[in-house]
Design a protein that fits this description.
alpha/beta, two-stranded antiparallel ribbon, about 180 residues, four-stranded parallel beta sheet
């Protein structure tokens, strides 16, 4: 498989935001009383691109009844120091800090980052336990799951991560509960 020849974005994101394009359309609010949980969003400040609590609050304050959001890992605000395995804990700490800011009410009524999906390298197997425990503590009751990107290909020369994840996934299931049918 050939490497992508697409130019890298300034921010390192898939594509840099285009405010001119975003301004071309405004979505009508269909039911302003309908409570909505935004189940997947990211926050970042990198490469000259910023999308933090102020920008998020502006986007969700458009008239829809967004009551809470779930922050999902995007490799943002990892710890700069310490063991590599524990660096993703910094992102959970960051999202928890945003949740505390949101709880002040200063950014609107929605509870931003009410739920958090972090990252742990499940290929660590039993070694993932320390990361999961640190993220559970850092999440202060908000951690809802782990995002672990995986790869698989029929070609044995391509590294396949999922067959080796079983032990780490089992550890994640032991430490995190599934909250079906409830909001964050």
């Amino acid at each position: 498989m050939a490497a992508s020849t697409a130019p890298a974005s300034i921010s390192g994101l898939f594509a840099d935001p285009r405010e001119d394009w975003l301004a071309l359309h405004s979505e009508a609010v269909l039911d302003p009383a309908q409570p909505i949980v935004d189940p997947h969003h990211h926050l970042w400040n990198r490469g000259g691109q910023r999308y933090l609590i102020e920008e998020m609050a502006g986007d969700i304050g458009s008239g829809h009844n967004i009551v809470s959001t779930v922050y999902v890992d995007c490799r943002s605000m990892y710890r700069a120091e310490g063991p590599d395995a524990l660096r993703p804990v910094g992102e959970v700490e960051f999202a928890t800090g945003v949740a505390h800011m949101s709880a002040s009410g200063a950014y609107g009524k929605a509870r931003i980052c009410a739920g958090i999906v972090g990252h742990a390298n499940l290929l660590l197997g039993e070694g993932a336990r320390a990361v999961l425990e640190a993220e559970i503590a850092a999440g202060n009751g908000r951690l809802r799951g782990i995002r672990h990107s995986s790869a698989w290909d029929a070609d044995p020369s391509v590294a396949a991560t999922w067959p080796r994840v079983d032990r780490g996934q089992a550890r994640a299931r032991d430490r995190l509960s599934v909250c079906e049918g409830s909001s964050p």
